[in-house]
Every structure is written in structure tokens, then in C-alpha cells.
Input
Amino acid sequence: MKAVKILERLLAALPLTFGVAIVVFFFIRLTPGDPVDIMMGQGGAVSEGEMQQLRQEFHLDEPLLAQLGLFLGDAVRGDLGYSYILKRPVTTLISERLPATIELAAGALLISLVIAFPVGILSAVRQNSLADRMSMAAAFLGISMPGFWLGIILILLFSVRLNLLPVQGRIGVDAHLQQITGFFVIDSLLTGNRIALASSLRHLVLPSITLGAPVAAVVARVLRSSMLETLRSDYVILARSKGAPESIVVLKHALRNALISTVTVVGLQVGILLGGNMIIETVFSWPGLGRMVVDAIFNRDFPLIQGSVMVYALTFVVANLIVDVLYTYLNPRISL
Amino acid sequence: MGNRVLLELRNLTTVFPARRGEVRAVDGVQLTLTEGEIVGIVGESGCGKSTALLSIMRLVRPPGRIAGGRVLFRGRDLRSLPDSEMRAVRGKEIAMIFQDPLSTLNPAFPVGEQIRESLRLHHIVPGPGLPWPLDRARRHGEKERVLAVMKEVGIPSPMDRYAAYPHQFSGGMQQRALIAIGLVCGPALLLADEPTTALDVTIQAQILDLMRHINKEHGTAIMLVTHDLGLAAEFCSRIAVMYAGRIVEQGTVDQVVDNPQHPYTQGLLDCRPRISMRQLRVQPIPGNVPDLATLPAGCAFAPRCAYRQAVCEDGPVPMVAVEADHLSRCLLHNQFQRKAQWDWLDSVGVES
Amino acid sequence: MEIAPEALTPFQRQRYLWRLRLRLLRRNSLDFVRQLGAHPLPLLSGIVIVVYLLAAILAPQITAHDPTRGNLRLRLDPPAWEEGGGWSYPLGTDSQGRDLLTRIIYGARVSLLVGLLSVGISVIIGLLTGTLAGYFRGRFDSLISRFADLLLAFPFLIFAIGVMAFLGPGFANLVLALTFKGWVEFFRLVRGEMLAEKTQEYVEAARATGQSHLAIITSEILPNIIQSVFVLGTLRMGYMIIMEASLSFLGLGIPPRIPAWGSMVAEGRDYMLVAWWVSTFPGLAIVVLVLAINLFGEGLRDILDPRLKIEA
Output
């Protein structure tokens, strides 16, 4: 029953993704700036004839609707076209870059939740204590700080000053990792490459913290305020009157209900993770999707922008779906 | 059973910090409950009756705290128990039923599981303490017991209802579930805080019947807190009337209802609508429930009392035994017999 | 005793109402100032904001250096307290030998202006659309609410990046991109309050005395919701400034020749290993300003409208 509904929602996401792609298609083509000019501007002097030939090759000389038709026709078959600049299939480029982005996002989400949950819960239980005030001040700082600056400060501190962690990139050159899935942490575990594992984890630490900090701040604040609410509720008194110890009262009865509103907020943070990854990947020269999109925007690399935006849209929809499923699981009063 | 004392409140005092000093929500309450007895605490909202129940369970919400007195349960002072031993008392020996079942049941867990939790917490069903997936035998035994209790409190087809969530229950069923939670460990004392206030009149009667049944069947003593003197009169064997944190009158139902001694009890009886009476006029008590933060030095009821005298405001008024087991906190009893006093007051023309 | 407003002519009534309102405002602001005394943090952050504003306005008077032209011989000079630094360049110089402090002061102009303009325009649009939708309902409401929900589904930064990629860098484009999505929250706030206030008795009473819709909206309802809008506006301001800085950091915001904090941090990133100060100080300027604005906003909310569920 539930599985069917989830599948339905997933299928409904596909037309939406295409809708986004069509909107993006028109938007970027209405933008001033000719991609071939930009391409050639980098390459040096090229004759007018050769430029014409390039335009033909990329179908840029055809009317807009014809271009759209070509694009959609290919996209249905899983072909998102060729990058103008990188001269390789967009699908290949995306699938190369995607694992890096997912690995970073997962690291960020993990770190932020690992920080936010204990902090949010303890702050609520010990409301107005010194620890509560300190962590809420830190959370306030977290939402008031631009991610790119936090990243640079962390690099300056941990990489430049203390020389503890690498400045940028995903893995050290000496790791010699054999790639299987593209997720470096998983690959190094699969191949039993300890050097690569240590190296990739060390490279993950700072970007994950940077990307996760605002998420941790928001989640900790929301969790604290909803825990304060649930801790005051009648069912907490009932749990205590049953003779339940505080650990069960807090972690089972109060937390379970506080999670309902927290999950919604965590879902909204997916947007921050997606947007933030463009910036954080730039700061840490992380070879992911976000960095590639920013470059593609500067280079007017139409097919690459289109393809990446579709991936973003799909990710966003799927993330929201996961949140919805979690929400209905947590809140028995709501059904999918 | 018999006349063995189950619970004895001695000078119980619970305070809440306020802007100026402390508010005494429960102020020197003395009350005794024998095994299997049903006692009612009656008073207007805000008179401290619910706080008194929470004080017994040591569940007063901070910043409120129990400031003094003793809570003797089977001779043990609950106030001096370590937290872990107090937890062993809660739910197992003393259980509590609350006013609003919908907000009291946890919306996130199935009703059956919420009943089962008490069993698990107190290790009622014996079995090896294995972690969750491996404890099937014990879980099974617990579920059997839960289903039996659900059936006893009148939840139809408990098998189907076990996995249902609170919001899928009607108000009456929710209250039954709440009673099942209280009952499942077989406590000696049930503290019921306005258990029928949120319910329809017909459902109220059913719930009261159920509680009476429990009292008879299991010998569970019940302390019922209500604002409804009529309900208490119908249900309890003894009644304590509370006003502004203090018990102002207590005695058997007959004593309190047929022969009320304290002017406040009088007022409560007068403002009860009675259809049987020819005259349907309801006599409200003048004035409002006092602000506990600014109580007068003397009798708290004095500002609203028709028989107020200057001495009433001078200092604390003691409880006086007007007959055997019948106590009242009013200065009128000290000097004369009540009847004579009132006649006298009438003759000199005191405005009433 | 107060006079019953119904007994007055419309003109007298208006005058009477305004007098009441002014009295209320005076009492509220007195309250507010008094409360600020009891809440040192919002007061302190208010002072910080004023300092930033003054610095932005008086930039040419404060600093003698040129924010755009530097001396390449003095490039990447460290701050005054570091070895090799000097007090003529208190926070050091950047890669083109420009005084960092000067550029930070001038950068305040961009951030504050973008923040004020994008929030200001968002507030105006939100008030207009929210009022129309919430007060009159109808097709306009359902249409614009649908559109607002759609916009809300996009992550703000991705949306802004997209719009900026489309429009190209520039001051006006930046304000446009931020406003394009920024108005939605004000719309939702105003619409919600309108819906709630409309059913209040005082509005019905005003209707019964034959006041026009416009009069009711401007003189009865708006004064009641303007505080909430003000609080939300303050809290959104910090967010807009971060957005502006993020876009400028990516090179999608303010054109590089105008000093903006975001692009300064981006520039400093290239010299991270040799000159930590170049990206540290502009970023610090952002953090302190945004922190002050958020603290001020939350203080404002706690004092003016504690029931409001708005977070920074």
C-alpha cells in the first residue's frame, strides 16, 4: 500500500523534472552571450567558418523549438547531450561528479545531525543552563555566518596554521585509489586501501563541517524548541506517572513527538545543502556537481547546465519525498 | 482491606515561586485514606486539588516544589524515597488518571503499546531481560495481560484495538485506555484527576461505573479530584473540600452533603443546579476564586463569605471537629453551635 | 472617560483615532526603549548596526584611501599588529595593494544597500499582494498563493544563482534576484494576518459604521500587523546580506570593480596560504553585521510580538 504510493510519487517527479528542464532551457537560451563565442574566446583566433560549423554541430543555428525537441527527444533516451566546453557527454560528466557531491552531502548531514541532536535535546532538558545558553549562542552564530567564510576560516586554522587537515580536494595524490563506485570512502573500504580511506576521510572533515554547520544550527534550534514543547505536554507527565525513568521520558516520549516538526525542518535544509554545495565545493575545490554547475554557468555550457539542473530538481523532489515518508511514519495522524 | 491506612498526607505543602515570594498551591493538607476507600477532593479550579495529587506522585512541575509535610504510603514516606524507589512506586503501586485523555495519551504510539509500557517498566511479566528482538516470549505474555485489561475496562475487540493510535479512539475509549494504563500493574491506589470532565454525560456515567467496578473487584483505593460536589457525593465515601490550597471541610459524604458546616461547602451545594427542586434558581458564590499570591492572613474564604466577622481576617483558622470524623475550618464553630450562631446572626440582621 | 467613536463625524473620528494611535505608538516606543535597557544584547546589536550604517554613509570621510586603486608595491601587507604591518593600513592590504579596511568600509555600502533595498521592495510587494489576497480573497488570492507556493519550493540560493546566471552580475540584477523570491514570506505573513484580523470585531464594527475598504485596511488593519512585518523584515535582512555575499563570492553578484565583502573573501581565497587577512576580515565584517541584525530582530520580536513564530 505504502510502497505503491511512494512509487506513484516518484513517477510523478519525472514530469516535474522535465518541466524544470524546459523552463531552464528557455531561460538560458534567452540569456545574452553566445556559447561559441565564449568557447572560442578561450581557444584563440578561429575563422568565422569554423565557428559556423561548431554552431551547426551543437544545433545552435536551428530555431528554439527545434532545439527543445531535439533536447527532449534525447533526454527521454537518457542522452543529455554533449558539453560544449568539456566535449564529453553530459550524463558521463554528471555521473563522474555526482558521487563526490553525494559523499559530501552525506558527510555534512551526518555531522550536522550528530551535533544537532545531542545539543538540541540537552539544551531543552537543561533549559537556561550554561550549556544551553552556550550552545544556543553557537547555533545563533551558525545561522549568521556565511558558509564560504566559515570554510576559509577552518582552512586557515586547521590546514594552514595547525597543518592537521588537507586544504582542498577529495583525496591525496599518494593514495592510489582504484575507483569502483566513485564514492572514495566506499571504494577504499572495498579495496581495503587504508591509506586512501584515511586520506579521503581527512579530506571530508572540513567541507562536511562547513556545509553541515548551518544545518546543525537550524536543526538544534528547532529540536530544542519542539522538545521544550513536548516536555511540557501531558503525555510526558503520564509517562512519568507510569514510573518511567527520565531517559525513557525524554528519548522516547518527548523526542519521538518533537521529531515530527524537526523532520520537516530537516527536509527544508536539503535546499540549503544543495545550494550550499555550490559554494562549499568552490571553497574546497571539491570536484563535485556544484563546482561544475558554477563553471558551466560562467561558460554558458547549455547542455551541462540543463542536465545538472535536472539532477538538482530530481534530488530535491526525492529528498522531499523521503521527508514526507518519514513524516507519515513518525506522525500516525497523517497518511501519505 | 479493612481499616488499614493506605495513604496519609500530613501537612503536605507545595509551593510555586511567584514574583513576590511563594504561592502555596497546596497548604498544609491533612488527609487519610484507608485501603479500598474512595475519597473525593472537591474544589473550584485553581484551588490546588490537582497539585495535591501530583505532589503525592512527586510529579509537580518545576519550578513548583513540595515544601513540607509527609506523604505516608503504607507507612513509608514517599518524599524521602530515592528517585529510583519512587519510580518503582509510580504506576505500580500508585497510578494516576488524568483529565484530558487525548492530550495525555502519547499521539505517536499505539494504545496497546502504551499500556504495555507500564508492564515492561515494572517487570510485571517475568522473563529473561533480553533486548527487544529477542524478548518475544515475554512480549507475548505482556500482550496477553494488556488485552485482558483492555477487555476489563470495556474496550471492544481489544485484539484489533491494540495497534490503534489514540486519535483513532473516541473520547470515552481514550479515557478507558488511560484507565487501563493505570490499572495494568494492579496498583493499590488510583489517583483520578477530573477523569470525567472532558467527557459527555452518558460517557461520564460509564467511566464512573467502571471505576466503581475496579474498586470493588480489585479493592483499589481511589482518590477522586473533581470540581463537581454532586459527582463526588454519588461516587465517594468521604469528601474533602478544598479552597485556596487548604482543606476547609472533610467528612463522610452524608456529613458533608447533608450537614455542611463550612460556608464555602454551603455555597458549593447552593450553586448546584437541581432539577428536582421546584425553584430552579442557582445561588452562585459571590466574588471570584482568590489569587493565591495575595491571600489574606486569616480565612481565605472571608472576602466572599456571608458570615464574615472581623476576627476571620486576623489569623489562620484551625480545623475544628464538629462531630466524629467531620472537620471544618471555620471560626463559627469555635464559639457556638453552628445553628445557634446562624440564628443569632439572622436575628441581629447580618446581610446575607 | 473616552468618547464613543461612533458619535463623531468621520473627520473627527479619524483625528481621534490617529491621536489614539500616536499615544499608543509613543507608549510602545517608550516601552520599547525601556525594555531595551533591560535587554543589553539587542541594544548592543542596535549600536553595532548604527555604526555600520554610519561607516557606510560616511565612508569617504572616514578613510583617505581609494577603495579601487592600490599600490602594487604594497601588495599583501599584513595587518598593523603583525610583523611588517603598519598603521597606515590597519588591517593590511590585498593582492593589488589596496587598503583592506577601506574596502571593507566601502563594502558595507553594497551589503546594507542590497539588504535594505531587497527587503524594502519585498515588504512593499508583500504588503500589497498580501493585503489584496487576504482581504478580498477570490481568484487573485488563489492565483498568487499558488505562485508563492511554487516559489517557496525552490531553495533560495539555487534560485538566486539561477536568476543571476540569467541576468548577469550587477547591482540592480542582484536586488531583483533577491526580491523575486524574498517577497513571498512577507506575502504569506500579511495574508495570514489579514485573514485573521478581518474576522476581528473591530473590523466588523468599522464595516458597520460604513467605512470604505481602503479606510479599513489602512487605518484599522495595517497598523495592527505592521509590527510583525517589521520584525520579519529585520530578520530577513541578515539573510539577504548573506545571500548577496554568497552570490558575490561565486562571482555572480556585484561586478568585481565595486568592493563587496563576498567578492573580497573570494579574492582572498587565492592568497589564503600567504595572506590570511585578505579573506578573514571582510568575512568577519559580514558575520558581525548579520549577527547584530539577527540579534536585534529577535530582540525586537521578543519585545514587540512574542507570539510571533519567526526565526532568523
In short: DSSP finds 13 helices and twelve strands in chain B. Residues 71 and 79 of chain B are 6 Å apart (CA to CA). The first strand of chain B starts at residue 5 and ends at 17. Chain B touches chain A through 31 residues (CB under 8 Å).
